[in-house]
Amino acid sequence: MDFFLSLVAILESTIRLSVPLLFAALAGLFTERAGVFDIGLEGKMLGAAFAAGAVAAVTGSVWLGLAAGILVSVALSLVHGYAAITQRGSQIVSGVAINFIVAGATVILGEAWFRQGGRTPALSGSARFQTIDLPFADALRGVPIIGPIYSELLSGHFLLTYLAFAMVPLTWWVLYRTRFGLRLRAVGENPGAVDTAGISVVWMRYRAVICCGILTGFAGAYLSLAMTAGFVKGMTAGKGYIALAALIFAKWRPVNVMFACLLFGFLDALSIRLQGNPLPLIGQVPVQFMQALPYLLTVILLAGFIGKAIPPKAGGVPYVKER
Amino acid sequence: MSNPYAKLPVWVDYGLIPLINLLVAFLVAGLVVLLVGENPLNAAYYMITGAFGRGEYLGFTLYYATTFIFTGLSVAVAFHAGLFNIGSEGQAYIGGIGVALACLWLDRVLPWYGVLPLAMIGAAFFGALWAFLPGWLQAKRGSHIVITTIMFNFIAASLMVYLLTRVLKPMGSMAPQTRTFDAGGQLPKLDWLMGLFGLNIGNAPFNISFLLALAAAFGCWVLIWRTRFGFEMRTMGHSPSAARYAGISESRITIIVMMISGALAGLMALNPIMGEQARMQLDFVQGAGFVGIAVALMGRSHPAGIIPAAILFGMLYQGGAEIAFEMPAISRDMIVIIQGLVILFAGALENMFRPAIGRFFAGLTARAPAARQAKGA
Amino acid sequence: MSDIAIELKGIDKRFGLVHANKAIDLTVRKGTIHGIIGENGAGKSTLMSILYGFYQADSGEILIDGRPVTIKDPNAAIAAGIGMVHQHFMLVENFTVLENVMLGAEDSQILNASIAKARVELKRLEKEYALEVNPDALIEELPVGLQQRVEILKALYRKADILILDEPTGVLTPPEADHLFRILAQLKAQGKTIILITHKLREIMAITDEVSVMRRGEMVATRPTQATSVEELAELMVGRRVLLRVEKGAALPGAVKLKVENLTVRDGRGVTMVDNVSFELKAGEIVGIAGVAGNGQSELLEAISGIRRAAAGTVLLNGSAIDVTGRADPAELRQRGLAHVPEDRHHVGLVLKFEEAENSILGYHREPTYGKGPFLDLGAIRREAEESIRKYDIRPPDPRLKTANFSGGNQQKIVLAREMERGPDVLIIGQPTRGVDVGAIEFIHKRIIEMRDQGVAVLLVSVELDEIRALSDRILVMFAGRVVGERKADAPEGELGLLMAGIDGKMEAAQ
Known about the structure:
The complex is a heterotrimer.
Chain A: H1 2-33, H2 41-59, H3 62-86, H4 91-114, E1 131-132, H5 137-140, H6 146-154, E2 157-158, H7 159-177, H8 179-189, H9 191-196, H10 201-227, H11 239-249, H12 254-273, H13 287-302
Antiparallel strand pairs in A: 1-2
Helix pairs in contact in A: 1-6, 1-7, 1-10, 1-11, 1-12, 2-3, 2-4, 2-10, 2-11, 3-4, 3-10, 7-8, 7-12, 8-10, 11-12, 11-13, 12-13
Chain B: H1 10-35, H2 40-52, H3 55-80, H4 88-106, H5 112-141, H6 145-167, H7 191-196, H8 209-226, H9 228-238, H10 240-245, H11 250-267, H12 270-277, H13 288-298, H14 303-326, H15 333-348, H16 354-365
Chain C: E1 4-15, E2 18-29, E3 33-37, H1 44-51, E4 59-64, E5 67-69, H2 74-79, E6 82-85, H3 97-102, H4 111-129, H5 144-157, E7 162-166, H6 174-189, E8 193-198, H7 201-207, E9 210-215, E10 218-224, H8 230-238, E11 256-266, E12 272-282, E13 286-290, H9 297-304, E14 312-317, E15 320-322, H10 330-335, E16 338-341, H11 345-349, H12 356-359, H13 378-391, H14 408-420, E17 426-430, H15 438-453, E18 457-461, H16 465-471, E19 474-479, E20 482-488, H17 493-500, H18 505-510
Parallel strand pairs in C: 3-8, 3-9, 6-7, 7-8, 13-18, 13-19, 16-17, 17-18
Antiparallel strand pairs in C: 1-2, 1-4, 4-5, 9-10, 11-12, 11-14, 14-15, 19-20
Keywords (chain A): Cell membrane, Membrane, Transmembrane, Transmembrane helix
Subcellular location (chain A): Cell membrane
Protein name (chain A): Sugar ABC transporter permease
């Protein structure tokens, strides 16, 4: 029973930790499926976290904070879009640039505006997302097995947590069951086909990039408005890259993305839990190994040792009309 | 032939356009300074005096530049083969192991010039090793080098934390770093070089690895443009299908170029470890590998461009510290913004101003005899 | 209702210094098949791209059904009832036929209803025009002929009345091409207007009602097909009598230089591209390989020259084996006397961003004459490049100029000079005159004959049957990856054409 309870606790924090990964990886899914590669997820998430934290702190409204986060993240997406789509620049270079600009700007602006060492003021009350208890969570708490699973594991998360998981079927539906999704996937595979069908490749890709911005906005807002009560400098701490890894690991498919994010979230939760505690049967595992594991797994996957990840065919290539 | 990249004079291509891109990057950075409520012109003044105002400041500027020459070359060499090595950061970090091992082993036995060659070999070896794996994985398994090198940066960071907290740390110490090296593990400063110009180096850690960096830049130039191997890697960088036709092995070039790139990144570790701190500390690379991307893009992947670009970033790092001192609202993170802006404008948006400049020059040449134009088509 | 479907008036288009279309007038009558013929680069594709809204004309007017229209993008073209089948298919390979047909013409945000409707409509079109194709098949699993059918269905699904086909038979086997022509005839019978762009005279004569000829951006003539002849059209296309007779003496074949036995090559997907091919190539002879593009010629050249791995078979060069199934290395083959002028000079034969001099040593850059040890001697390289510039009359004569700045003919000469001037035993040439101006063609043909007369064994691949017939001493015909026949150089054109279609005329006649 003790083992069961600590398993529930680990899984509970798995869910908590995988939410930003899930938002960001789905964000990446939209743009990469449309043929625009994005290693700037990290920067966008960080920018959104800062804007959300700052605006929520100033206005006292969590919703205005969320809106600001999304706005900033969409704006950064548009910069990436302008470089990658309109100017046909290198998508990788542009992503790298955005990561740096944001990493520097959040610290400079945060320090200049709030003077708390790069933090935004701590949020409380209506300036922060509150957890939601599912119906009957208290009543069921005592029931064995089901009680902890329902009341601890599934209940008591933030609105954004439930939204993140709801985004998975929604993303799948948009991608495979709507006109927008059909065109979006087409533009990532063969933009020429989309162009000759009378659809603007540029506008399609910009829309995909904006979708990415909105979702990274949620990811960032979750960090500073829900998981933590305020922005801390560099708080994404590589989560954007892990999300990227999860996206590749999931072979650019929405449902796989969820499982990849849960796996990487689980590794994270486990490494926090295991700090200093030996693992049964294996013994002491260095925490650094657990931290590196998502990256190691992605490298191994990319090397084709576990299946093969084939990116969208037109990914990373600016569209130029052929004569 | 509706080519927006029509031919421009060489000095425009390699001089004017990069300069305009740089200028725009700085203008945007100036806007950020305004946003923070400071005067950008004052900031620029502090920056320049802070970077060049005294011998000591210049010494710091060149100390940073040394690091960036190595990482800039690392990124540039890979660019020439069409490879984007984002992993210079991790390779430099791992390269530090080689330097540290050589120093820990021999610093009490040999003088610095005895330790240095071994430290160089060690740095290059470990850096190359860390780049070999992504290179090998791309060449033999088809994994994309950009993604793998990003992953390897994180793996390197975890590995180094592990090593510095558990393996290389002296017994009883709490700080995650090696012991301080004796004289054999410390590189001499270039005070005499500064002295030639009547400058006093003060406390600046400007050391002989600067000369090694210059030598490496020359070596890279020879490698890229004067050797058969350089010819092969440029062929592959421009056209992999032409390389295959010419009998150039793609996997061989990928692996070797990545190892050269990693070795150059690794050599960077000499500068902070043996040149300044006389020990290996946690996170001693401090993002220099990423600065290398900006330096390579700005220097157009040419050693002759990389050296001034590296000095410019050295100026930003040293002068940035001075700004931070004079203007508390502006911390050294300002450099990270500028670095990002340079990467954006000199890299991803490098062609933004080209059509306008092209039109301007087309307007100029339109007055020249039309006959000269007729030869095209 | 007028009986004119399309009228173009004074269409003019420049790309920088290239005047692609010069004040073009064109009238296409409703319910006819109108051919537009011209050499590569004559401006046909540009004109059609303007009609389809891919480019905007600098000046001029477009009238559809007598009404002036502006076609600013493909959308406007589709709305005006114009559909286009591109030379390179515009299909999403991992989508189904249905999804491809629907793409861009879905009539609701949510797909379910559109899919149901498209399925019904597709069924109807299939029946009406006899265009069967499984709507749920993935494009990447369909043969080329069927992929093209999907392109036609796409246009019909969008209710196109005017159908433009850009070089539709380039990728088809002759039976597939025949099938396409039957489809086109059927479409015409249903009242559709068809514009057929091609550079193949035979197709024009076989199927069109009217034909317009373009040359160097100008529309030079329009004729009713019945009132013209292949000879007249050929003359109009080129602007002077085509004399594809190259002066050459009889071949004096010597020892066997290249012996190919049972060579089989598969592509990345495991499809057999070269199927058990065997032949010999002797010193002092030119063997031409004829065939419709895509019948394995390219793969054959690549396998022999070591660029592509073969699945099985042996190749002997000067009597010793080339490890074609294993580690054959183009660099090593060059040393052993095998030179290769590749089909695609832009992506394979040259590095366009290199200086001319650098390209003049590509593949030979390891030779000791170009420097000591690992180093290159730029001076020596440029001096030698200057020499071949003189000998091959490459213009402009500047070894330091970027290769991209040379014209097609001069670029090809750079490749030829590099591969011919080192005294090879075997010379493999793919498409020697593709995209090359007329003046350079003569020069190149002469040089190839000279090589033969010096005792070089020449293997020539070209999709231009005329070129093969003019240069070769023996002709091998490839069809579906196999060598289906060998003929003398003077074999009648019709017989070769049948062989290229996979039909052995001689055998059938004998039966």
